[in-house]
């Protein structure tokens, strides 16, 4: 080994993979750097439910020996990853964010975890989630809410439900991680924590072995520091799985061949003026600058005429309510169970939906999908802010108002979407751009995002505590 960087925790996943492959440093070096970062920050940030330090070190040693002996299993061998506490690992506890399941031991390993481990990746641990993944702010009443690292003084929303993964990756405790997205749960922590998050189309990545919220809408997806890292992790996880019927017939897609093709000639949709109402001024300013940047890169920016307001999609949330009640209704109806008040109320709301109402909602959803597809004709993507505001103080959170106004339509209309940093407020809080494409067109969303990140440096900024440590 030669010229090992001072702190490997600061490297992107791609840079780690490349350094390990040429033996500039080892998987052992990478794991030790990340565990040191976890030891230093985890007591305050609370990103992890459990850190598998001993097993990660053992796996790193094995990866190092395999790579040195010429037995690398692929380009990601030896790269660490964090998994959301919805993802089963055989013999490990999966709480799904609920104190009611503190002792729930998984009896199998989720397909996504098996695929990552089979490619030589090293699981650092499980990360916190909103209870049953049912919330967008990132709060968890009984197990605790991770601390957004972009404000060391005031606890702010980390975004949910993949809150712990967002905080772990932002705070350089993991190079990347797995989240899930049912109504924004990858993109919201990406927005609030200054990351890149990809919401995939249903069926792209298997949900087998992942604690369900809504079997109709659930999608796993990567949270990473760069678009390129998100593309690599997406490619590593995607593909048909005989254990998940939604993946049947959906062939794997490699986004890398077109990732650096740029946006010249693409026609991108600006949201209507009416959708700007109620959005924070800093968010809108960053959004407008991002559109200007993409236009300067050669994209055509045109205002789209939508058949409905984004907020109108909230009426379709009954799908999630009903399906969440099927899974966790008995627990929610038990007053002795330790469920968070807001999550319990959302689950119980599903009991009020009749079969007739549920089917009517499904039919309405199909009609809205057709209407939106017609409006999208001639466009390659729709661009919106990811959230209405930057991260807000936890004591300002209203659990009756979720921050998913711009995210939820992607799930309910079977689209895919990418969230990525687009600026910062005057006080240093991240702002985020969302790129939404047709279903199964993740490669185009990533292509647009890569072009934008190639022209900006927002994704390279570091949270204050990391920056202070580097500067001494």
TrEMBL record:
The lineage of its organism: Bacteria, Pseudomonadati, Pseudomonadota, Alphaproteobacteria, Hyphomicrobiales. This is Indoleacetamide hydrolase. GO terms for molecular function: catalytic activity. It comes from the Bacteria. Pfam families: Amidase. Residues 29-445 form the Amidase domain. SUPFAM superfamilies: Amidase signature (AS) enzymes. Hydrolyzes indole-3-acetamide (IAM) into indole-3-acetic acid (IAA). InterPro entries: Amidase, Amidase_CS, Amidase_dom, AS_sf.
């Amino acid at each position: 080994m030669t010229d090992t960087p001072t702190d490997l925790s600061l490297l992107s996943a791609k840079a780690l993979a490349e350094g390990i492959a040429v033996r500039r440093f080892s998987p052992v070096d990478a794991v030790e750097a990340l565990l040191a970062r976890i030891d230093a920050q985890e007591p305050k940030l609370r990103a992890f439910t459990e850190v598998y330090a001993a097993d990660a070190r053992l796996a790193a040693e094995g990866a190092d020996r395999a790579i040195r002996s010429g037995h690398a299993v692929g380009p990601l061998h030896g790269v660490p990853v964090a998994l959301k506490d919805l993802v089963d690992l055989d013999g490990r506890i999966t709480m799904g964010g609920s104190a009611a399941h503190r002792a729930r031991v998984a009896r199998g390993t989720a397909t996504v975890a098996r695929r990552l481990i089979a490619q030589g990746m090293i699981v650092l641990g499980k990360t916190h989630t909103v209870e049953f993944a049912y919330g967008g702010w990132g709060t968890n009443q009984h197990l605790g809410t991770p601390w957004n690292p972009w404000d060391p003084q005031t606890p702010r929303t980390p975004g949910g439900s993949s809150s712990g993964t967002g905080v772990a990756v932002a705070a350089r405790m993991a190079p990347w991680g797995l989240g899930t997205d049912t109504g924004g749960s990858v993109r919201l922590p990406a927005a609030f924590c200054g990351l890149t998050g990809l919401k995939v189309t249903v069926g792209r990545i298997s949900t087998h072995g992942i604690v369900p919220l809504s079997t109709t809408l659930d999608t796993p997806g990567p949270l990473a520091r760069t678009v390129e890292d998100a593309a690599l992790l997406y490619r590593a996880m995607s593909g048909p799985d005989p254990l998940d019927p939604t993946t049947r017939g959906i062939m794997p897609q490699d986004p890398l061949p077109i990732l650096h093709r740029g946006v010249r000639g693409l026609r991108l949709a600006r949201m209507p003026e009416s959708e700007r109402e109620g959005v924070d001024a800093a968010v809108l300013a960053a959004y407008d600058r991002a559109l200007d940047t993409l236009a300067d890169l050669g994209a055509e920016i045109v205002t789209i005429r939508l058949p409905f307001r984004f907020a109108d999609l909230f009426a379709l949330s009954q799908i999630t309510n009903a399906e969440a009640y099927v899974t966790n209704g008995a627990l929610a109806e038990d007053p002795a169970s330790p469920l968070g008040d807001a999550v319990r109320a959302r689950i119980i709301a599903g009991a009020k939906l009749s079969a007739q109402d549920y089917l009517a909602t499904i039919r309405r959803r199909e009609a809205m999908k057709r209407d939106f597809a017609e409006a999208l004709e001639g466009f390659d993507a729709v661009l919106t802010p990811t959230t209405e505001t930057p991260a807000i103080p936890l004591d300002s959170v209203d659990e009756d108002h979720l921050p998913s106004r711009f995210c939820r339509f992607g799930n309910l209309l079977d689209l895919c979407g990418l969230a990525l940093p687009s600026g910062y407020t005057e006080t240093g809080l991240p702002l985020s751009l969302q790129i939404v494409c047709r279903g199964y067109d993740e490669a185009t969303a990533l292509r647009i995002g890569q072009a934008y990140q190639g022209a900006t440096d927002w994704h390279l900024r570091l949270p204050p505590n990391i920056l202070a440590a580097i500067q001494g």
